[in-house]
Write a structure and sequence with these properties.
Blueprint (H helix, E strand, L loop, with lengths): L13 E12 L2 E12 L3 E6 L5 H8 L7 E6 L2 E2 L2 E3 L5 E3 L2 H8 L2 E4 L11 H11 L5 H14 L15 H13 L5 E5 L7 H16 L3 E5 L3 H7 L2 E6 L2 E6 L1 H6 L4 H7 L4
Parallel strand pairs: 3-10, 3-11, 8-9, 9-10
Antiparallel strand pairs: 1-2, 1-4, 4-5, 6-7, 11-12
Bound molecules: adenosine-5'-diphosphate and magnesium ion (MG).
The site of magnesium ion has 4 residues, from helix 1.
Family: Belongs to the ABC transporter superfamily.
Protein name: ABC-type histidine transport system ATPase subunit
Pfam family, one: ABC_tran
């Protein structure tokens, strides 16, 4: 349990609310009614076997995937979805989609930096071109964020000259640059060599300590136990077990969850 984390979300603002999300790909139902609420300052760890639906849930949250049914609210604003004539769902209002996306910072397993731009240029891209910030202001803020993730010295370097851990820290700075209400991480350390995992987890841990709202898909169980205040174990598109890290890791009710979180050698 991290310092200062609040157990009871009742008095804090909900930042992300997913209500009974269903998502199918063809005949395969990947999410079978998943609900999740992240209040201000929550760090939610999503854990579960490969294929259980963790990435799809994150991608539904920022509408990279559109659920077949269910409600999504970001900062109390419900995303309006329409059913098209062929039965699929789409976002009703593209401006709303842009507004909602600007509240979500996303960090993927593969760092997805622009190869032909320097680290700083990567970081200021969205603030300047999407949010319309003055360039000088975006640069000042970008440099501050690069200091925070320990990459200021590399600000004028191209991504190819960085280690995987440095690239991922740059990607985190880039996601932070839009001043998101919530950060979404999808296995941020899975593509890294083992010796580089720690530096990225440290940055995410610092963000948690600042009280940032985050949803983190991770296979790093020790990290989930220490940093999250709520853990959700997904199995086959449903939430099989959830609760405090103490409960999910210490005394899970589900046998499947128990097997999954059991320390391995
Ligand atoms: P996880 O992140 O927990 O490993 P995913 O959400 O990536 O799981 O995937 C859940 C299931 O959905 C898997 O069976 C996967 O093959 C399937 N899936 C994910 N994305 C697509 C897609 N775009 N088209 C078809 N099937 C998909
Ligand atoms: Mg995944």
């Amino acid at each position: 349990m991290r310092d200062g984390a609040v157990q009871d979300g009742a008095n804090r603002m909900p930042v992300v609310e997913l209500d009974d999300i269903h998502k199918r790909f063809g005949l395969l139902e990947v999410l079978k009614g998943v609900s999740l609420t992240a209040h201000e300052g929550d760090v939610i760890a999503l854990i579960g076997a490969s294929g259980s639906g963790k990435s799809t849930l994150l991608r539904c949250t920022n509408l990279l995937e559109i659920p077949n049914s269910g409600r999504i609210l970001i900062g109390n604003e419900e995303i309006r979805l329409n059913r098209t004539s062929d039965g699929t769902m789409q976002v009703a209002d593209q401006r709303q989609l842009q507004r909602i996306r600007s509240r979500l910072g996303m960090v993927f397993q593969s760092f997805n930096l622009w190869a032909h731009r320097t680290v700083l240029e990567n970081v200021i891209e969205a603030p300047v071109h999407v949010l319309g910030q003055p360039r000088a202001e975006a640069i000042a803020r970008g440099e501050e964020l690069l200091r925070k993730v320990g990459l200021y010295a590399k600000k004028d370097v191209y991504p190819a000259f960085l280690s995987g851990g440095q690239q991922q820290r740059a990607a985190i700075a880039r996601a932070l640059a839009i001043e998101p209400r919530v950060m979404l991480f999808d296995e941020p350390t899975s593509a890294l060599d083992p010796e580089l995992v720690g530096e990225v987890l440290r940055v995410i841990r610092d963000l948690a300590a600042e009280g940032r709202t985050m949803i983190v898909v991770t296979h790093e169980m020790a990290f989930a136990r220490d940093v999250a205040n709520h853990v959700m174990f997904l199995h086959n598109g449903t939430v099989e077990e959830e609760g405090t890290p103490q409960k999910v890791f210490g005394s899970p009710e589900s046998e499947r969850c128990r097997q999954f979180v059991r320390p391995r050698d």
